TrEMBL record:
Protein name (Swiss-Prot/TrEMBL): Germin-like protein
Keyword Repeat: no
SMART domains assigned: Cupin_1
Keyword Cell wall biogenesis/degradation: no
Localization of this protein: Secreted, Extracellular space, Apoplast
Organism of provenance: Linum tenue
Amino acid sequence: MLPLLSLLLLLAASPAAALVQDFCVADLKSADTPAGYPCKSVTSVTVEDFAFAGLGAPGNTTNIIKAAVTPAFVGQFPGFNGLGLSMARLDLALGGVIPLHTHPAASEVLFVAQGTICAGFISSGANKVYLKSLNRGEIMVFPQGLLHFQFNSGKGPALGFVAFSSHNPGLQITDFALFANDLPSEVVEKVTFLDDAQVKKLKGVLGGSG
């Protein structure tokens, strides 16, 4: 009886057992919740809810990072709601960079479609760096929550596509978290060991204050 009870508890906790309907297309008119958006009425769902053309066009890379990220998260592609999936397109001009950042809610896989992208992540605890130059057709995985980055290390434009293990992976860019808000300069200096001139320069570049 005990092994059977354990098996039933295991099945009850599995994602497959939790699936009680075929899909849950997001009702973007409602508020998001930790469990995702509420479902649209099935009668209002169409095939267009399961297709997305937004990753077909290049993003604008005329900016400070010379790069563009075009997301296909649940907010852009409601069909992803509840499926534990999302995607994005990375366009990197010559010298383009996706700065050090983290996705609190998802692991990430990068596929290089064009050019050469140098990518890496930093482990927690030991702070070990895993760095790799990726060419067309190669992939790399970035575990959930770890700081990671990508930059164009080739001689021309680079293009990548990324997939996430959540319909809404979240994003925090380290540079923006430190220098693109009103966190007081003296606090930034204390926690980063940067001097006042460096902090104020970076705040000026990224639009921060304080």
